[in-house]
Every structure is written in structure tokens, then in C-alpha cells.
Design brief:
By secondary structure, the chain is α+β, with helices and mostly antiparallel strands. The protein contains eight helices and five strands; from the N terminus they run H-H-H-E-E-H-H-H-H-E-E-H-E. Strand 1 and strand 2 form a beta hairpin. The protein is globular, with a radius of gyration of 20 Å.
Length: 193
């Protein structure tokens, strides 16, 4: 196996050398196919780690350069070793910047009060009156997903890479860091707001 491919795949994905070498062999040296295999395996690992308890972590604050807006994020992991890891700290920084830039109201759709969701649905129902039921249901579901993308941090497009949602970013970090990672809470402050 060509070592330069292993190095290139490691740089692309952040995966371990042995994992990179194994998936490159499995993919017959195809870099893109190997990256896809790593991503799929990473999602499986992240799902398995998602149930593990997170008692360590850090609170990270970001204040925009104008000093008029800032955010704090409490990001949890399993061990203090990972909490001190520069990659974990960068994730906390990126999440605080995301909160400043996009002003989410909730972490995930599960955090939205039922009455808020019902009001949204009522509003969408009025927009689809007269349409066939199955079409109306699909339209309402699509509008709800869009709403979640606006108000839920995990469902928002990541500001540094709009091809992925914040939720995917965290899953990728779980896969590369090897521990469960959760956003516990966040707060955003704007001068005069």
C-alpha cells in the first residue's frame, strides 16, 4: 500500500493510520471510497458511543471582535483528557461562534416545547388548506424541518462547512476523538438586546 495515500486519507479524515491503511486496502486504493467507508464506520462508532455518560468537558466563551456579541457553550465529554484535547477545544470554540452567528433557540428539536411546535403546525396548516392530505402532510413536515434548521443548534448548517449540519460535525468528532460528546447548554448575549 502506498504510504502517501495513507497520509493523504489521514489528513482528509483525521482517522488513525491503521484505520486508514485498512480501508484503503479494502477500497483497492480508491481514496474517495476509503473516505466514505471511514465516514460510515465513524457514524456507527458515534452511535455506539452516544449512550456513554458524559461528566467531563469545558465551558468555552467566544466574544466577537466588536465586543457587542458573545456566547458561552458547555460541551461535555467522557474524560478530562479529551476535554484538554485541542481538537475538542476547537470544537467548543466553533460551536460558540455558531451560536453567535446563527442565534439558535434550542439545542435539538426534542428541546422545543410541544406548544411551540403545535403553533408552528397550525400556521403551516393554514398555508396548505385545500391541498390533498398526503401532500399537505409532506409540506408541513418539510416546513417543520426547515424551522428546526433555523432554531435548533444541532440542525443548523455548520458555518465553517455548510455541507454538514452541526449534528454531523459532532458525530464526526465523536468518531475521530473516540468519546461521546454532547452540548449541554449554551447562552448568547448581544449588547442592548
Amino acid at each position: 500500500m502506498d504510504n502517501s495515500l495513507v497520509v493523504k486519507l489521514r489528513a482528509m479524515t483525521g482517522a488513525g493510520i491503521v484505520d486508514c491503511k485498512n480501508v484503503l486496502e479494502e477500497a483497492g486504493g480508491d481514496l474517495e471510497k476509503a473516505a466514505d467507508l471511514l465516514r460510515k464506520r465513524g457514524e456507527i462508532k458515534a452511535a455506539k458511543k452516544g449512550e456513554r455518560e458524559t461528566k467531563q468537558g469545558l465551558i468555552h466563551a467566544y466574544v466577537h471582535s466588536n465586543g457587542a456579541i458573545g456566547a458561552m457553550v458547555e460541551l461535555l465529554c467522557e474524560t478530562d483528557f479529551v476535554a484538554r484535547n485541542p481538537e475538542f477545544q476547537q470544537l467548543a470554540h466553533d460551536l460558540a461562534m455558531q451560536v453567535v452567528a446563527s442565534n439558535p433557540l434550542y439545542i435539538s428539536p426534542e428541546d422545543i416545547p410541544a406548544e411551540v411546535i403545535e403553533k408552528e403546525k397550525e400556521f403551516y396548516f393554514s398555508e396548505v388548506e385545500g391541498k390533498p392530505t398526503e401532500i399537505a402532510v409532506k409540506i408541513i413536515e418539510g416546513k417543520l424541518q426547515k424551522y428546526y434548521g433555523e432554531v435548533c443548534l444541532l440542525k443548523q448548517q455548520f458555518l465553517k462547512d455548510e455541507d454538514i449540519a452541526v449534528e454531523e460535525l459532532i458525530k464526526n468528532k465523536i468518531a475521530t476523538i473516540g468519546e461521546n460528546i454532547q452540548i449541554k447548554r449554551f447562552a448568547r448575549l448581544a449588547l442592548g438586546a
